[in-house]
Amino acid sequence: MKQTSILHSPTLESVLMVERTIKKYSQECGKYQLWKKLPKKMMYQTFQVILDYLEESGKIMIDKDRCIIWTYNPVRIKKLISEELVVR
After folding, report:
1. pLDDT at 57
2. Number of C-beta neighbours around residue 20 at 10 A
3. Mean pLDDT throughout 51-80?
Protein backbone atom coordinates (compact mmCIF):
# COMPACT_ATOMS: atom_id res chain seq x y z
CA MET A 1 0.00 0.00 0.00
CA LYS A 2 1.04 3.56 -0.53
CA GLN A 3 2.68 5.30 2.40
CA THR A 4 0.51 8.37 2.82
CA SER A 5 -0.98 10.14 5.78
CA ILE A 6 -4.50 8.83 6.37
CA LEU A 7 -6.86 11.35 7.93
CA HIS A 8 -9.72 8.89 8.41
CA SER A 9 -9.42 5.10 8.50
CA PRO A 10 -12.24 3.20 6.83
CA THR A 11 -14.59 1.06 8.88
CA LEU A 12 -15.47 -2.51 7.95
CA GLU A 13 -18.95 -1.27 7.02
CA SER A 14 -17.40 1.22 4.59
CA VAL A 15 -15.15 -1.41 3.00
CA LEU A 16 -18.09 -3.79 2.53
CA MET A 17 -20.23 -1.01 1.04
CA VAL A 18 -17.50 -0.20 -1.50
CA GLU A 19 -17.06 -3.91 -2.31
CA ARG A 20 -20.80 -4.33 -2.99
CA THR A 21 -20.84 -1.23 -5.17
CA ILE A 22 -17.82 -2.39 -7.18
CA LYS A 23 -19.41 -5.82 -7.71
CA LYS A 24 -22.59 -4.14 -8.96
CA TYR A 25 -20.86 -1.71 -11.32
CA SER A 26 -17.77 -3.75 -12.23
CA GLN A 27 -16.28 -2.75 -15.60
CA GLU A 28 -18.73 0.16 -15.93
CA CYS A 29 -16.99 3.16 -14.39
CA GLY A 30 -13.88 4.72 -12.95
CA LYS A 31 -13.06 5.90 -9.44
CA TYR A 32 -14.96 9.17 -9.35
CA GLN A 33 -18.09 7.76 -10.99
CA LEU A 34 -18.04 4.78 -8.61
CA TRP A 35 -17.62 7.08 -5.61
CA LYS A 36 -20.72 9.02 -6.70
CA LYS A 37 -22.72 5.74 -6.92
CA LEU A 38 -22.06 4.77 -3.28
CA PRO A 39 -25.31 4.47 -1.30
CA LYS A 40 -23.83 6.55 1.55
CA LYS A 41 -21.46 9.48 1.37
CA MET A 42 -17.85 9.08 2.42
CA MET A 43 -14.72 11.17 2.13
CA TYR A 44 -13.00 10.68 -1.22
CA GLN A 45 -9.66 10.10 0.57
CA THR A 46 -11.24 7.24 2.57
CA PHE A 47 -12.65 5.81 -0.65
CA GLN A 48 -9.18 5.89 -2.22
CA VAL A 49 -7.67 4.11 0.80
CA ILE A 50 -10.27 1.35 0.39
CA LEU A 51 -9.52 1.05 -3.34
CA ASP A 52 -5.78 0.82 -2.60
CA TYR A 53 -6.46 -1.96 -0.09
CA LEU A 54 -8.75 -3.88 -2.48
CA GLU A 55 -6.23 -3.59 -5.32
CA GLU A 56 -3.33 -4.65 -3.08
CA SER A 57 -5.31 -7.68 -1.84
CA GLY A 58 -6.18 -8.78 -5.38
CA LYS A 59 -9.92 -8.19 -5.18
CA ILE A 60 -10.00 -5.49 -7.87
CA MET A 61 -8.02 -4.38 -10.87
CA ILE A 62 -7.97 -1.01 -12.58
CA ASP A 63 -7.57 -1.29 -16.34
CA LYS A 64 -5.75 1.04 -18.72
CA ASP A 65 -8.92 3.14 -19.13
CA ARG A 66 -9.08 3.54 -15.30
CA CYS A 67 -12.19 1.31 -15.15
CA ILE A 68 -12.52 -0.68 -11.90
CA ILE A 69 -13.02 -4.45 -12.29
CA TRP A 70 -14.02 -6.88 -9.52
CA THR A 71 -11.72 -9.91 -9.81
CA TYR A 72 -12.18 -11.83 -6.56
CA ASN A 73 -14.01 -15.15 -7.07
CA PRO A 74 -13.71 -17.48 -4.03
CA VAL A 75 -16.03 -20.13 -5.53
CA ARG A 76 -13.79 -20.47 -8.59
CA ILE A 77 -10.68 -20.55 -6.38
CA LYS A 78 -12.12 -23.37 -4.22
CA LYS A 79 -13.03 -25.31 -7.36
CA LEU A 80 -9.51 -24.96 -8.76
CA ILE A 81 -8.00 -26.05 -5.43
CA SER A 82 -10.29 -29.09 -5.30
CA GLU A 83 -9.07 -29.98 -8.81
CA GLU A 84 -5.52 -29.91 -7.40
CA LEU A 85 -4.41 -26.78 -9.20
CA VAL A 86 -0.65 -26.47 -9.12
CA VAL A 87 0.50 -22.93 -8.37
CA ARG A 88 4.12 -21.93 -8.95
Report:
1. 93
2. 13
3. 90
Q: How confident is the model at residue 79 (pLDDT cuts 50, 70, 90)?
A: confident
Q: The domain spanning residue 44 has which CATH number?
A: 1.10.10.10
Q: Say if 4 falls within a structural domain.
A: no
Residue 2 pLDDT > 60, yes or no?
no
DSSP-based helix, strand, coil % in the chain, nearest 5: 50, 5, 45
Gap between the Cα atoms of 69 and 64, Å rounded: 11
From residue 16, give the alpha-carbon distance in Å to each of 53, 64, 71, 80: 12, 25, 15, 25
Whole-number Å distance between alpha carbons of 25 and 4: 28
- The residue segments making up the domain with residue 75 are 12-82
Q: How many CB atoms lie within 10 A of CB 55?
A: 15
Count the neighbouring beta carbons within 10 Å of the beta carbon of residue 34: 20
Per-residue model confidence (pLDDT) at position 86: 67
